[in-house]
Write a structure and sequence with these properties.
4-stranded antiparallel beta sheet; alpha+beta; about 45% helix; NADH Oxidase; homodimer; globular; 12 helices; about 270 residues
Chain lengths: ~270, ~270
């Protein structure tokens, strides 16, 4: 029974049979972004448990340099949703978190203890805090899914970082890197499905990088899949993913480097 | 029994009793960095399962712009370990992955399909790929821990990014953001313990950012904890975390912004 269910999840990811000796990891294969929620409230004790999971993630050199800001006030939530390109799930999620990298706290605590962290403006400081905040958030999401919740990340939290900082009183050195919606999934949401992924050999290379990615089978698979989630097939996955990294797509985020500098990052 | 065990994990994180209505998330609270491994091999099928978990993480706009390069060849592994400041676990881990953000593939596939991703040099492209690679890795780590494996992230993979790129034949646009060691934990490793974390109110703020972090109780708790993992107590956690973001600490990473530019990032 369990094997059958894991086989099903694998098939949805890769469109082919799993290897015979697959380890039992099904729960982690079943992620899907959940953008519609039912009315069942998520109690504080559940969120406290999930924050503990987030904090239990690895943190480079034990720095713990990230902060979650939950926004539950409905008027404030509406402003945040607007800053995130009016994505409806930001408005409707039972819980919404701004996941922030936080070099302000590091600086404040350092000053008090006589150690000035003079490298907070380096790319390294930005990278390591971005990594740590992301590890924390994903452990929180894995735990949330394990107890029946659904989640959706909101990259559009980076659209207008300074407006967000003003709204939530972020000091310099605090940057909202992404949002996180949490709630019990609505059964009515037929688009919240397990989506295909690239074949493993495209993303898992051995001993050295392989420079000739052939994703034609995946593009073909996606041409079949897109209509299932209401998307047209006039553009291949290959073209769509490239568009994600095109200036015309970035909705203000093309100037993120300037914004980051104004907020105290990347200044060295 | 289960409740008791989860209470124990919570106590080790926060040094105080859990709330009475805590959700059952114990497995995710028990993370610890595992740097010593036993001889039990980790079969390919297990790794394939874990890579599928990594791929099942959310990916912004479906871009899937990261790549894992496993390094199993012992001579090559020794060079990687040396580039990572000679951390022993890089040498001894049954599996080692370079987790890479990958804008090369995006560019190569875009070119083929007639869409040039002209924003790969933006801070946004760097941030979103760093986030996605980290989400993938942490889902892989959560799954690994669920089936009895242990993991250790290696931030020092960023120490000498160009030497690493040359060794593993990375094209421009591929950057090894951190390493990941995987293996069955050695029972003999008494330092692989659940480590304390900051009290929740320090990292979880409500409705707005709280600017006055008081970590004196945590500093005191750490003064008791440090000797348990063989560290001296002459420096507080507050001072140690600030040192993490000091130029003297960064082991070459203080020039990461220049290295990233040379590798095709942050050029816009």
């Amino acid at each position: 029974m369990f094997q059958e269910s894991q086989r099903d999840a694998w098939l949805q990811r890769y469109g082919e049979e799993p290897p015979p000796d697959l380890a039992p990891v099904e729960a982690f294969l079943r992620h899907r972004s959940v953008r519609r929620y039912d009315d069942r409230p998520v109690p504080e004790g559940t969120i406290a448990a999930l924050v503990a999971c987030a904090q239990s993630a690895a943190t480079s050199s034990y720095a713990q340099a990230w902060t979650l800001v939950s926004v539950q006030d409905s008027e404030k939530r509406a402003v945040v949703a607007n800053l995130c390109g009016d994505q409806k799930q930001v408005l409707t999620a039972p819980w919404f978190f701004c996941v922030c990298i936080d070099l302000y706290r590091s600086h404040a605590l350092g000053e008090k203890s006589g150690v000035i962290p003079d490298a907070v403006g380096t790319a390294e400081a930005l990278m390591v805090t971005a990594v740590d905040a992301s590890l924390a958030a994903e452990r929180m999401v894995c735990a949330a899914e394990a107890i029946g919740l659904g989640a959706c990340y909101i990259g559009a939290l980076r659209n207008k970082p300074q407006e967000l900082a003003e709204l939530l009183d972020f000091p310099p050195g605090v940057f909202g890197i992404f949002g996180l919606c949490l709630g019990y999934p609505s059964e009515a949401d037929t688009r919240a499905v397990i989506k295909p992924r690239l074949p493993q050999p495209i993303v898992w290379h051995r001993e050295k990088y392989q420079r000739e990615p052939d994703v034609s089978a995946f593009d073909a698979r996606m041409e079949e899949f897109y209509p299932r989630i209401g998307m047209d097939t006039s553009t291949t996955w290959s073209a769509r993913q490239a568009r994600r990294f095109s200036l015309g797509y970035l909705q203000g985020r093309e100037t993120l480097d300037e914004r980051l500098r104004e907020m105290g990052f990347l200044t060295d």
